[in-house]
Amino acid sequence: MSRKSVKIGNKLIGEGERCFIIAEIGINHNGSVQLAKKLIDNAIESGCDAVKFQKRTVDVVYAPQELAMPRSNPFGETNGDLKRGLELGYNEYKQIDEYCKKRGILWFASCWDEGSVDFMEQFNPPCYKISSASLTDDDLLFHTRKTGKPILMSTGMSTMEEIYHAVSILGEDNLVIYHCTSTYPNDMNEINLNVIPDLKRRFNCPIGYSGHERGISPSVLAVAFGAVSVERHITTDRTLWGSDHAASLEKEGLWRMVRDIRQIPTIAGDGRKVVYENEIPIIKKLRRKKTVCV
Q: Phi, psi (5° rounding) for residue 50?
């Protein structure tokens, strides 16, 4: 099956292209632009292609009773205080937009409601992400597709039937589908990388991997299984308060993951069995007899 590449800014996601690596900052900025900038720096220095945030209209995404629930946090005493404290506004995103452009890295967001898509359009992002939680939100899918931007879609906590339905709305053009398991962090027996080649058989678009595991091995292996893009949450400290930090990579882990992913095409080679020049001295040293091939 021939798959078209998807262009994100000046980069391509697709077969034969360099793996497109996304460092998801999400809400791990903890409401601080300075922390967001530090995470952007870490992503750039590790060799990532893009950083991603999350944007919500709190009173639309969450029910009033959920916002009113007691939850002690740095912003107050309710869940609503926390959710509102973690949302960056126009001035903060303007700083982030300017900083990413200055540093030369792509940035975009997962938008959890239609108003957040309209908000992000002010910054003309190169693409949008549909989170796993939003995959069954038909209105949001239609609204996001109307922007005309490429869409990256995660598939955690979704059945194959739900994925097919979402693709029927979004179409396969300008779409990248990410295998994902929505636990934070993943247990190893729930990662199921064999879903990646299955998605490649089912859909005529690039397939990626969005991981929440501890460590880096599954994310690196995902590329060997056929993923052409990898997304991982990042943090400056996994022990920070917040729901996503424990499943995130600190700078050293992120750097190692990017390094190992970049090595995969070289390690995989071209598939032709040959005797390498560097093997010839070893042949002379170790082989007692030479086969006579007729």
A: -160, 160
User: Cβ(230)–Cβ(19) under 8 Å?
Assistant: yes
pLDDT in tens, 159-198: 999 999 999 999 999 999 999 999 989 999 999 999 999 9
Q: For the domain 6-286, what is the CATH superfamily, name and number?
A: Aldolase class I (3.20.20.70)
Asked if the model's pLDDT at residue 3 lies above 80, the reply is: no
- 3-state DSSP assignment of residue 28: coil
Structure confidence at residue 125 (pLDDT): 98
- Closest to 19 measured CA to CA, from 28, 27, 8: 8
Could you tell me the residue ranges of all domains in the chain? 6-286
3-class SS at 188? helix
pLDDT band at 288 (very low <50, low <70, confident <90, very high): confident
- Under the banding of pLDDT at 50, 70 and 90, the label for residue 6 is very high
What's the pLDDT score for residue 247? 86
Cis peptide before 185 (omega within 30 of 0): yes
**Burial degree of 179 (CB within 10 A; 0-12, 13-18, 19+):** buried
CA-CA distance, 79 to 84, in Å (whole number)? 9
Compute how many other C-beta atoms are within 10 angstroms of the C-beta atom of residue 291.
6
Strand partners, 9: none
Please tell me the number of Cα atoms within 13 Å of 141 on its side-chain side.
22
Give Cα 193 to chain centroid, integer Å.
15
Instruction: Kindly give the pairing relationship between strand 50-55 and strand 106-111.
Output: parallel
